[in-house]
Design brief:
The structure holds 3 protein chains of 3 kinds.
Chain A: E1 2-11, E2 18-28, E3 33-37, H1 44-51, E4 59-64, E5 67-68, E6 76-79, H2 83-86, H3 93-98, H4 108-121, H5 137-150, E7 155-159, H6 167-184, E8 187-192, H7 195-201, E9 204-208, E10 213-220, H8 231-234, H9 236-251
Parallel strand pairs in A: 2-10, 3-8, 3-9, 6-7, 7-8
Antiparallel strand pairs in A: 1-2, 1-4, 4-5, 9-10
Helix pairs in contact in A: 4-5, 5-6, 7-9
Chain B: H1 3-29, H2 40-51, H3 56-87, H4 89-104, H5 111-118, H6 122-146, H7 150-158, H8 163-200, H9 206-215, H10 219-247, H11 249-259
Helix pairs in contact in B: 2-10, 3-4, 3-6, 3-8, 5-6, 6-8, 8-9, 8-10, 9-10
Chain C: H1 10-29, H2 40-50, H3 54-87, H4 89-102, H5 111-118, H6 122-146, H7 150-158, H8 163-200, H9 206-215, H10 219-247, H11 252-260
Helix pairs in contact in C: 2-10, 3-4, 3-6, 3-8, 5-6, 6-8, 7-8, 8-9, 8-10, 9-10
The chains are: A alpha/beta, B mainly alpha, C mainly alpha.
C-alpha cells in the first residue's frame, strides 16, 4: 500500500550539507501496524515528514497505492509528538476534531456524527466543549488521535506520539490505539524510540541505523492478539524480540549484513 | 506580616493612593491664587459645566468619530497587509525599506503634508490617524503570522486545510495576540494624533478646545479639557483591555498551561 | 529551490527604485496633482541644497537637542524611580494604580499647560518630550525589575549576598534588556513629541520649518524636510537597535533574532 523506495534526504548544500537519511526502502501493507524504531537523532521525524509529503526528499520516492506522494495525500492523517502544539488553542475539542472535515464537504449531520464517534472512542465525550489547554497531556493526545480518526484516513502516521506523557497514561494510550485500529480498520505507521513499545504494538518492526539512516533490519512480530500490557509482556517471545531489537540497534551499521536473517 | 494581610494591604493601597493624590491636589490647589493652577474644585465645576453635556455634541463626538474611523481604517489595512507580508518572505524583503522609512517619520511631521493635500477638514485628521496607526499593527501582524508554530502549520497541511480556512481560521486567530498588542499601541497613538491634528488645524474637537482655551486664557476650561483627555485615555485603554481579555482567553489559558 | 529571476538581495533596492520612479512619473504625467506633488527628483534636489545650508542644520540641531534632553531627563528620573518602586512589592502595589491612571493620559494634552508655564521655547519642548518618554522608561524598568528570575534571587540569597549586592549583581543585569527596549521606544516617543512641539507651539526645529515651508507655499522644501525628519528618525532608531544588540548579545531575545537573520 505504502512504498518507500531508496528514500534519501540531505539538508543544506555544499560543505554544510547534512545527510539525514541515506537510503531507505521498505513497504507497509494494508491494515498493517508497522513500528519504526531507531536510536535518537536517526532522522525518524524527517522520514515521517517525507512519507506524509510535508517534506520533499532529495532522492528516491514514496508511493501510496502506486501514486507518487508529493504533498500530503488525502487518505493520510498524522499525529504529532507535540500534542500541545498541534491542537488549535482557540478551538474547542469539538472544533479541533471537526476542522479537518471541512475538506470533505460532508453535510452537517454526517460531520457531527463522525466527530461524536471519534471523541467517544477516545473517551472524551464529556469534554467536547472544553479547550485543549484545559486538559492533561494524555487527554490532549487523545484529542489529536480523535481528530485523525474522524478524518477517516486509510493510513495513520504517528510520530513518537506518547513520548511526552507519563508511563501509566502511555500504557493506556497504547491500548487505545490497538483498540481503535481494530475498530477503524486503519493502517498505522508508528515511529518510536522505545523498543518495548514497538514490540508491544507492531506487526512488523523496521529498525533504523543512526544517520545517515538505512534500514538495519525488518523483523516480524509474531505475538498473539489481542495484546495485553501484562500477559503479552510476560511472554518469552516478547523478551526475545525486545532483546533482539535492542542488540540490532546497538550493533549498528557495521554488522548490518549479519542481521538480515533475523 | 502574613501573606494574606500583605495582599489586602496591596489592593487597598492600589485604590487609595490615586484617591489620596487627587485629594492632595485638591488641598494644595484650594484657595490657590496662582493664575495657571486654579483650585481643583474650580476645574471640576467647569468640567461639569463644559462636558456634561454641553460640548459633547459639538466637540467630543467629532473627535471620537475621527479617531474611531482612522483607527478602524488602519486596522483593516494593516491586518490585511500584515497577513500578506507575513506569508511571503520575498514580499517582506521587498517591503522592508519602505515600511521602515515610513514608520520612522515622526507622525506630526506629516501633518503639513496632509493639510496641503487633503485640506483642514475631518478627512485630513482621519487620514493622519490611520496613517500613523497602521505601522504598529502591521509589524505585529507580520510577527504574529511568522511566529505561527511549525507543528500547527504542518497540521493544517496534512489535513489539506483550504487556503481560505488557513487564513481565516488558523493564521488570523494565531496572530491575534500580537495584533492586539499592536492595536493597543496604535490606540494611544490615535488619541495623540487626534489631539495634535485638532490643535494644528480645526474648528472643533477636544484638542481644538483645549488649545483655544489656553489662547483665550480660559484656564479652568483648559484644565477641564486636559482632565477629559486624561479620562478618555484611561477609559479607552481600560475598555480595550477588557475586550482583549475576553477575546484572548484561550491565549492566556494556553500560555499558563504551557508554563505550568 | 528553483533559481529565481531576481535574487533576494536585489528586492529591497528594486522596491525602493520602483517607489522613486512612481513618485517621479505620476506627478509628471499628471496622475498626482503637480501643485501638491513635485516630482521626487526635485524634492531630493532641494534636500541636497538644504544639506549645504546652516539654517537647515540649525533646525536639525534644535530638534536633536529637544530629543536628547527629553530622553535624558526621562531616563534619569524613570530608571532610578523604577528600580526603587520595582524592588519593593508593597511600594509597587501602592504606585501601580497611580501609574496606570497617569500613563494613558496623552502627553499632548499638556501642550497648552506647557505653553503657559514654559512659553514657546526649548523648555516646553523638553518638558513634553520628557513627560511622554518618562512613562515608557518607567514601565519598562518596573517590568524588568519585577521579572527577575526568582531562582536567580534565591541562589544569590543562599550564597549570602546582601540586599544591595543582590540589586547590583542580579536584579539590575536582568532588568537591562527591558530598560534598553524601553529606552528605544522612549527615543521614538521623544522625537515625536519634540516635532509636535515645534509644529504646534512653534519652537525652533524641523517641525516648525516644515510647517513654515507649507504655509510659505514651498512644497519642495516641505517634502525635503519631511524626508529629512524621516531619515533622522531612521538613524536614531537604527543606532538604538545596534547598541541594544551589542550590549545585550548574551540575552536570549537577541539570540533568537540573530539566528533568524
Amino acid at each position: 500500500m505504502l512504498k518507500v523506495e531508496h528514500l534519501a534526504k540531505t539538508y543544506g548544500e555544499g560543505d554544510r550539507a547534512v545527510q539525514a537519511i541515506g537510503d531507505l526502502t521498505f513497504e507497509v501493507n494494508e491494515k498493517e501496524f508497522v513500528c519504526i524504531v531507531g536510536p535518537s537523532g536517526c532522522g525518524k521525524t524527517t522520514l515521517l515528514k517525507c512519507m506524509s509529503g510535508l517534506l520533499a526528499p532529495t532522492g528516491g520516492e514514496v508511493r501510496l497505492h502506486g501514486e507518487l506522494v508529493d504533498g500530503p495525500p488525502e487518505q493520510m492523517a498524522l499525529v504529532f509528538q507535540e500534542y500541545s502544539r498541534s491542537l488549535f488553542p482557540w478551538m474547542t475539542i469539538r472544533q479541533n476534531v471537526a476542522f479537518p472535515l471541512r475538506r470533505k464537504r460532508l453535510d452537517k449531520g454526517a460531520a457531527a456524527k463522525l466527530v461524536e464517534e471519534a471523541v467517544e472512542s477516545v473517551g472524551l465525550s464529556g469534554s467536547v466543549d472544553r479547550y485543549p489547554w484545559e486538559l492533561s497531556g494524555g487527554m490532549q493526545q487523545r484529542v489529536a488521535i480523535a481528530r485523525a480518526l474522524a478524518y477517516q484516513p486509510e493510513i495513520l502516521l504517528m510520530d513518537e506520539p506518547f513520548a511526552s506523557v507519563d508511563a501509566q497514561t502511555r500504557a493506556d494510550l497504547e491500548d487505545l490505539v490497538l483498540d481503535l485500529r481494530g475498530k477503524y480498520g486503519v493502517t498505522i505507521v508508528f515511529v518510536t524510540h522505545d523498543i518495548d513499545e514497538s514490540v508491544y504494538l507492531g506487526d512488523r518492526i523496521v529498525v533504523l541505523t543512526p544517520a545517515p539512516t538505512h534500514v538495519q533490519e525488518i523483523c516480524e512480530v509474531g505475538l498473539p492478539e489481542p495484546r495485553d500490557q501484562v500477559d503479552t509482556k510476560e511472554l518469552p517471545e516478547f523478551a526475545r524480540l525486545r532483546a533482539h531489537v535492542y542488540r540490532s540497534i546497538k550493533r549498528r551499521q557495521s554488522a548490518a549484513e549479519e542481521a538480515v536473517n533475523a | 506580616m502574613s501573606e494574606r494581610r500583605q495582599r489586602w494591604l496591596g489592593v487597598g493601597l492600589e485604590v487609595t493612593v490615586p484617591l489620596l493624590a487627587l485629594v492632595l491636589w485638591g488641598l494644595l490647589s484650594a484657595g490657590s491664587d496662582t493664575y495657571y493652577f486654579p483650585p481643583l474644585t474650580d476645574i471640576l465645576s467647569t468640567f461639569a459645566d463644559t462636558w456634561l453635556f454641553e460640548r459633547v455634541g459639538s466637540d467630543v463626538v467629532p473627535s471620537l468619530e475621527r479617531m474611531g474611523l482612522g483607527f478602524a481604517i488602519a486596522v483593516v489595512i494593516a491586518v490585511t497587509a500584515g497577513l500578506l507580508l507575513g506569508m511571503s518572505r520575498r514580499a517582506r524583503i521587498a517591503a522592508a525599506p519602505i515600511v521602515e522609512f515610513l514608520r520612522a517619520i515622526p507622525p506630526p511631521a506629516l501633518l503639513p503634508f496632509a493639510i496641503l493635500v487633503i485640506g483642514v477638514g475631518s478627512s485630513m485628521k482621519v487620514f493622519i490617524i490611520a496613517f500613523v496607526c497602521i505601522w504598529p499593527i502591521l509589524l505585529n501582524t507580520i510577527d504574529g503570522v511568522r511566529g505561527i508554530d511549525p507543528t500547527l502549520d504542518d497540521t493544517t497541511r496534512v489535513y489539506g486545510i483550504s487556503s481560505r480556512d488557513r487564513i481565516w481560521r488558523v493564521m488570523l486567530p494565531a496572530a491575534t495576540p500580537q495584533i492586539f498588542a499592536g492595536m493597543r499601541t496604535s490606540l494611544s497613538l490615535a488619541l495623540i494624533l487626534m489631539v495634535i491634528s485638532e490643535m494644528v488645524a480645526s474648528t472643533n474637537g477636544i484638542g481644538y478646545f483645549v488649545l483655544q482655551s489656553q489662547r483665550t486664557f480660559a484656564i479652568p476650561e483648559m484644565w477641564s479639557g486636559i482632565l477629559l483627555l486624561g479620562i478618555l485615555g484611561y477609559v479607552l485603554n481600560g475598555g480595550f483591555t477588557l475586550i482583549e481579555r475576553r477575546l484572548l482567553r484561550w491565549h492566556r489559558g494556553a500560555r499558563a498551561s504551557a508554563l505550568g | 529551490m528553483a533559481r529565481r529571476a531576481i535574487p533576494d538581495w536585489a528586492l529591497p533596492w528594486l522596491s525602493v527604485a520602483a517607489v522613486l520612479v512612481l513618485f517621479e512619473l505620476l506627478p509628471r504625467i499628471g496622475v498626482l496633482p503637480r501643485e501638491h506633488f513635485p516630482p521626487i527628483s526635485q524634492t531630493l534636489d532641494t534636500l541636497a541644497q538644504q544639506a549645504g545650508e546652516s539654517k537647515f542644520w540649525d533646525a536639525v540641531g534644535n530638534t536633536l537637542q529637544g530629543w536628547a534632553l527629553g530622553l535624558g531627563i526621562a531616563a534619569a528620573l524613570a530608571i532610578p524611580l523604577g528600580i526603587v518602586i520595582g524592588s519593593s512589592r508593597l511600594l509597587y502595589r501602592a504606585m501601580r494604580g497611580l501609574i496606570e491612571f497617569l500613563r494613558p493620559i496623552p502627553s499632548v494634552a499638556l501642550i497648552p499647560l506647557a505653553i503657559l508655564v514654559y512659553g514657546t521655547g526649548l523648555q516646553s519642548k523638553v518638558f513634553l518630550a520628557a513627560f511622554a518618554s518618562f512613562w515608557q522608561v518607567l514601565v519598562a524598568t518596573l517590568y524588568g525589575v519585577q521579572d527577575v528570575d526568582p531562582v536567580a534571587t534565591d541562589t544569590a540569597r543562599s550564597f549570602g549576598f546582601s540586599r544591595v549586592q543582590r540589586l547590583f549583581r542580579v536584579t539590575l543585569p536582568s532588568a537591562v534588556p527591558y530598560v534598553a527596549t524601553g529606552l528605544r521606544i522612549a527615543s521614538a516617543v521623544s522625537l515625536i513629541l519634540t516635532v509636535t512641539a515645534e509644529l504646534v507651539i512653534g519652537s525652533a526645529g524641523l517641525g516648525r520649518s516644515i510647517n513654515l515651508a507649507r504655509s510659505g507655499g514651498n512644497e519642495e522644501l516641505m517634502y525635503a524636510l519631511i524626508v529629512a525628519t524621516g531619515v533622522l528618525g531612521l538613524v536614531l532608531n537604527t543606532v538604538f537597535v545596534k547598541v541594544e544588540r551589542r550590549v545585550l548579545h548574551w540575552h536570549p531575545s537577541q539570540r533568537r533574532e540573530a539566528a533568524a537573520r
